[in-house]
Amino acid sequence: MVAVSRSFAGTLLRQYPPADILTIRLPLAILLALPLLAPMLLPSTRLLSLAITAAIFLIVANGLHIVFGYTGQLSLAHTTLWGVGAYTAALLAIHYGWPTAALIPAAGISAAIAAVAIGIPAFRTAGFSFAIITFAFAEILRTVAINWRDLTNGGAGLMLRTPPTSIGPIEFETIRHLDNFYYLTLAFAYLSLAGVFLIRQSRLGRTFIAIRENESLARSLGINVYLHKLIAFGLSGFFAGVAGVFLLYNNQKIEPGPLSPFSAFFTIQFLLMILIGGRFSMLGPTIGAVIAVFAPEVIRPLIGLTPLGDLSTARIQIIFGSTLVLTVLFAPNGVAGQAKERYGALAAALQKFRERQGGAAPPGAAAGG
Amino acid sequence: MIKRLRVWWIVGVLLTALLVGAACTSDDDVDDDGEDATATSAPTNGEAATATPFTGTILTPEDVLRKDGTATKEVEIEWGWMFELSGPPQIQIFATVTGDGVLFAVQEINDAGGFQIGDTIYTIKLLEHDTESDPNKTIGITRQLIVDDEVNVIWGPASFGEAEATVITQAEQVLHLCACQDRGLTSLSSVEKAAGESHWAFQTLPLVSRFFLQGALNVKEDHPEYERVAIICIDSEIGRSICELYEESYSAAGFEIVGVKVFPPGTSDYTPLLTNLKQQNPDILLNFDDPTAQLNILGQALDMNVASSYNTSLPPDIVQAAFGDRLEGKEVTAGGIPRQATVPTSEAAAAYFERYAEFSGGELPLASFVSLLSYDFVYMLVAAMQQAGTVEDTTAIADALETIHYAGAAEDDIYFNEQHFSVIGSDGCIVRFEQPIECSHDAPVRD
Amino acid sequence: MSQELSVFMQQLFNALTISGVYALVALGITVIFGLTGIVKFSIGELLTLGAFLTFAFWEGGTTFFLAVPLAAIAVGGFSLLLERGAFRFTLDQPINGFIVSLGLILVLQNLIIEIWGVGFKAPIRPFTQVWEVGGVSMPVQRWFVVWVAVVIIGLLFMVLRYTKYGRAMRACAEDRDAAALMGIPVALVIAGTFALGGALAATAGGLLASLFAIQPFLGSQYLLKGFAVALVGGLGNVEGAVIAAVLVGLTETMGSGYLATEWRDAYTFGLLIAILLVRPRGLFPARGRLQETLQ
């Protein structure tokens, strides 16, 4: 664990060169620790429920980040893999009474297998053809979830009443012990974040990025592009599958309906999360997931204060959509990319200021972000 | 991006269920003075339940609001209220109007000075929430209402997140009333299977299956020459259940089922299925989906001349406006539950729509009849609280609610059956070429 | 005519109508992609906008036959504004153009809800007659839609092949830089193509308003089918899109008519997967620099 956290910190330091501890490391540490206080800070159970949703979304988005952000493959089947994980967990829990600790790897692996199974034919194509083939597979899986009624109970879906297995005296039941369930979900959200960081730092991650940046060049360097794309897709499926377990426990239900993981709505929402957060940044999906869940909560009351008054959901959506368009036009690398640029500029300014003061520049500060 | 509209389907079912029966018998049964025309003269073959009028006390709104002047305390109680005020259009319309029924009833009760239990006058405050048609948000709101606000009663939602919310309310023994579509066919049984009990959940939409056989028998009586029935339903849990119910009921009534087709959600062009079904020469075409789809199915079926008789759950005035002279020589049964605002079939309903129009600012909202799926049940819940002598002991209130009979705007005798489904009747209408719309009321099939 | 044959002819006629609509949507997608590499998902909302504008013009007293071109012009102009205001800044980064179009879906869909409300509108139906030939029912309205689609597709071919604009457009699609060096006003051609794509989608929407009841979420289902068609035909290839539209329309109609209808989408998408696996760039890949880098 120590080794992990050390490389985690090292990763952070490399990713965000410490021009000044106050401008980057401290704010980042506070930002990352903030969710630990959510049960104390959030004034209502409803908002804590939203925080759980955000944590689950974050795991899913981090998975998508591996295949879309790192490897540059636009998968439209990712949220379906999330659903595959949830169905796997539901079937194993309902019929065989598996404990949570066994469900999590099982759901992850089953979604990873599904991802590889889709990837084997789909990665024979690239670009938008790949996107549409994954979408076609997602639609077929949805049709199966609705029509293979003996297994999936059709459109009604599967219902699970048992809460996550308790650890000693700690219960995770989702009404009276919602705090505990939140921390459980949050722990896995942090793990997913750590996973994304570790992959990015590994040889594997560099290979993924090489493929994204220039596929032909990567191929000419002897990289097995097809295999690495499959690995990326499988890893992303694993993340999605794990998130499926938490979705199942939170909703106590999984179904292939219009607002389920099987809907095109979520497919697009998760893409937007990554794009808003910044698809070239490790923290992009995290920022995107938090914004997607909490922005409406903040925006609505804020607009309520303006002369526009209480807005209909349609108008909020119009504002959200316009913001998205403007973000892409003016900040194409998302919130994280923008923040990095701004911080870079700030750090450079501080550096100059210090040089002018005659102080020696700290070593390594000149390295660009 | 793709948002399906689910809740209308159950409305569709309900409407469709009684339509055929009610409308086909309407020629002889409709009363000129708008009084109830109860069409229950159909032959029974043992399975079709006959009406056995309730002989005990049927409460009225006056009974519920009566105060004896001995009250010394005033208390405001809080109920949870969560509906899909935004989201996919047709859910939103349905949910908003169902929620409106609760708002309207609560305002009437409060305006009348509240209700009395023992020495206390209670007024009601609704803690209103928009679920945004999002199951995740619905779960959060339900948890907040129960854990933070400690409410004993929750109304809604209509469709999205309803099963998820019901699991929570039943585990916490909170009274949960809604006109929710899934509850009828899937979620209550799923909750019961999963949690063991759903004593505190009440469904204010009537159970649909009981109407089907009655409807089928009515058609057989009116049109003995009709023999062949074709059915198309949407591919969803509820759509498939409806198809099965149609098949069972119409076979039992002596019809021959010549074709059943299930189509995926998001279909606009039904001509491939209709072509296939037309080959079987059906006399009657039954269909089931949301209103947009029904308009498309009906229009295309009329073009292709698939059958002699069609039915739809669309409001009859919309059918007449949409098809006009294409209805020549054809018969379309149409309508809505439980009472039509356009052609009210009882005095109580006519008076209700007048008051409701005033409440909504002078004009009736779209699908205003849907508010009757919740309005009367607010009074019934209050009556149950009065009978149980408590506003807090949810088990005692649920026990009492099981026994209440109430004369409201939708029906003269409303009650919940053993499975906690409301028992109310439905209006059916018939639309013909260049003729006024005729509507009549079918009393509910009773246990 | 034997019954089997007349049923088959009926299904063929059914497939023809829906293929015509798919072709118009797919053409809008394909001309824009061929030129700019931008996958314009918001074209589905332009279709919805076209349908509702047609309805609005018709409700305001215009005849249907004038309402559709009016709506097409209006939406074409609107699409032009979108290109000038947003898409032209994303030409070097097509993925950003794709995201912009996702954002526009939200904006347009909700604008339509704000303006026209959430309910549905009944079909307009300028022709109510139904021709019966040998047991095949052919509503005149459907014939009308088929012929309008055929005429528009024919005109589009003529424009692309024989006019100066068409030649400029094909040149830009093959190599934008080379075209610019030859003195072709590339920016103008791209703007014109966005207007054209928008107008094609709006025409499809207007025609749909005469066949089916319309509602604010109409666009998404046609967008996905139109996109699948464009891809099967080879993104950027106009002739391919038309052939693929007929292929997808036939698969859907014959699949629903003769096999289990509930699996309809699985037939269409199964066909799509099969075709793209054998020919990853579609049945008739377009030529050009963009296709090589993106496909």
Task: List its salient traits.
heterotrimer; A: 369 residues; mainly alpha; ABC transporter involved in vitamin B12 uptake, BtuC; two-stranded antiparallel sheet; disordered N terminus; disordered C terminus; C: 295 residues; two-stranded antiparallel ribbon; globular
What does the average pLDDT of chain C come to? 85
Low-confidence stretches of chain C: 289-295
Order of helices and strands of chain C: HHHHEEHHHHHHHH
CATH topology assignment of chain A:
ABC transporter involved in vitamin B12 uptake, BtuC
CATH level-1 class of chain C: Mainly Alpha
Major sheet: arrangement of strands of chain C: 1-2
Order of helices and strands of chain A: HHHHHHHHEHHHHEHHHH
**E-strand count of chain A:** 2
Question: Could you say what the CATH architecture of chain A is?
Answer: Orthogonal Bundle
Which consecutive residue ranges of chain A, at least 5 long each, have pLDDT under 50? 1-6, 360-369
Q: State the domain count of chain C.
A: 1
Secondary-structure arrangement, i.e. CATH architecture of chain C: Orthogonal Bundle
Concise account of the structure shown:
Chain A is an all-alpha fold and 369 residues long. Helices cover 73% and strands 1% of the residues of chain A. Chain A contains 16 helices and two strands.
Structure overview:
The complex is a heterotrimer of chains A (369), B (447) and C (295). Chain A has helices spanning 2-15, 21-33, 38-41, 45-70, 78-96, 100-122, 127-147, 149-152, 178-201, 203-213, 215-220, 225-251, 264-277, 284-305, 313-330, 334-357; strands spanning 158-159, 253-254. The model of chain A is unreliable at 1-6 and 360-369 (pLDDT under 50). Chain A has one domain: Orthogonal Bundle (ABC transporter involved in vitamin B12 uptake, BtuC). Chain A has 369 residues and is an all-alpha fold. In chain A, helix 10 (203-213) packs across helix 12 (225-251). In chain B, strands 2-3-1-4-5-6-13-12 form an 8-stranded mixed beta sheet, with helices on both faces. In chain B, strands 8-7-9-10-11-14-15 form a 7-stranded mixed beta sheet, with helices on both faces. Chain B has 15 helices and 15 strands. In chain B, helix 6 crosses helix 7 (181-195) and helix 14 (375-388) packs across helix 15. Chain B is of the alpha/beta class and 447 residues long. Chain B folds into 2 domains: 7-51 and 209-341 and 426-442, Rossmann fold (3-Layer(aba) Sandwich), CATH 3.40.50; 61-206 and 344-423, 3-Layer(aba) Sandwich (Rossmann fold), CATH 3.40.50.2300. Chain C is 75% helix and 3% strand. Chain C has helices at residues 3-36, 43-59, 64-85, 94-116, 140-162, 164-174, 176-181, 186-211, 218-233, 238-258, 264-278, 289-294; strands at 130-133, 136-139. Chain C is built from 12 helices and 2 strands, in the order H-H-H-H-E-E-H-H-H-H-H-H-H-H. Chain C has a single domain (3-294), classed as ABC transporter involved in vitamin B12 uptake, BtuC (Orthogonal Bundle). Chain C has a two-stranded antiparallel ribbon. The termini of chain C are far apart. The chains are: A mainly alpha (369), B alpha/beta (447), C mainly alpha (295). Chains A and B meet through helix 4, helix 7 and helix 13 of A and helix 5, helix 6, helix 7 and helix 9 of B.
